[in-house]
Fold:
Amino acid sequence: MARSAGLIGIATMASRLLGVVREIVLASIFGASATPAMDAFNVAFRVPNLVRDLFAEGAMTAAFVPTFTRTLKSRGREAAWRLGNLVINALLVVTGVLVVLGIVFAEPITRAIASADIVGDVLRALGFATRAASPAGFASVEGKLELTTQLTRIMMPFLTTVAVAVALMGMLNSLHRFFVPALSPAMFNVATILCAFLLVPAMPALGLPPIAAIAIAAVLGGIGQIAIQWPSLRKEGFRYRPTLNFRDPDVLEILRLMGPGTLGLAAVQVNVLVNTSLATTEPQGAVSWLQYAFRLMYLPIGLFGVSIATAALPDLSRHAADSDRQAMRGTISTALRMMLMLNVPATIGLIVLAQPIVELLLEYGRFTSRDTAATAAALMFYAPGLLGYSAVKIASPSFYSMGDSRTPAIVSVLSIAVNLALNIYLVRVMGFRGLALGTAIAAMFNAGTLLFLLRKRLDGLEASRLAVAFAKIAAASVLMGAASYYTAHWLVDVVPGAAWYWRAARVSTAIGAGIAVLAVSAKLLAIAEFDDALGRVGRRVFRR
Structure:
């Protein structure tokens, strides 16, 4: 599992780093609060992106991989290929209908998400006193809702492309082909970067706003995700067939798992959707500040949480099929300890270095120092939820592998309710920062509840071993954070330059100091997970 997670991590790192480059390019060209373009794009992309996140890292994978793996193991590849074709064609039909509906009803969908008046009316109907919408709020800016509606219509076909791409990803993962599927999301980032440079200047000549080029890039990125995976699947023997049967038992099983499964893994994305809607009541730029911060926070989730969970899922499915609870406990415990070793230091690092990281990556062109301060504040409050997000990626599929999609669905609904209640209160007290904090707390609630129920289901999760590992990792990470924080502040006086290379020097030195302290602390505390990681890397280097 560690080897597979490593391959996924390498591919995901390439994708996520390209994602950071994408955010740098967009921030430089469009800024955050300087123009309404990025706020409009982020709201318009919220609906198709919600479906993408649910499919790509959620219910589709969690429901499809166990069923496809079981079919592959019990009936062979031909039966598995037939199931793959049935699922792809069903997705084409279902998402095609959704795309048409999304294009037709783009205006009311946009207004439902972005109208400060509607948000305020709903909150007041629930009995909550709300702050008056900012004069610079979303709905009050002339042409902003119309621009958002236009971008929504352009991006709707992205749903179909990403649904097919995820089906291909699930089949390749079931065959233990992890690298190419993990690399495929990079095509979205590549398309965005290329269109930002090539299409943005051409949009006015076509009678379209410059930001429309980024909406077009989303659709092209979805097509690219299919194109990069198709050759690998053909090499395994898959051939596309236009067969469709919604009554097939395996298709019905996948749909049965996906219904509540989508709800079970939806908490994070629905909470982000709620945040987007509530953020439209804040000053211009709030939607983009939260979006930039969430993207930076999501980098370690993609590198560590998703890669570990994706590698563990086929093993969990096999152990569940064999009714081997002891093996399941071991796999989940190993995955959680690997996640803690990577994500606890990442959480502390994001909190203490939020300001210099955002300044280094985003403060160029139209992205101002005010945008940097606001985005860094949101990142600091999002960061504690990193552990919760990553743990959910491991815990929810564990239930699905046992054929239980009901429990994660119920817990997800509860966490959405917790997030809504927290954010309605915190946005009045802390503004957009409260939205980030409420989402982080809800993620921790979601993960804690799932792990508690999973522990009861499997008669334990090696809790004492997990607790000892967490205590040691947390202690080492706090020392690491202190070293990074004081190094960064000291370097501001020693290396005060504002050029990007001086910023990079300060951030990299602070991170290097923190990693050095983390390594020494891990050795002194005898953190087994750290030693295992070093040993694995060392053996691979010396073998080569």
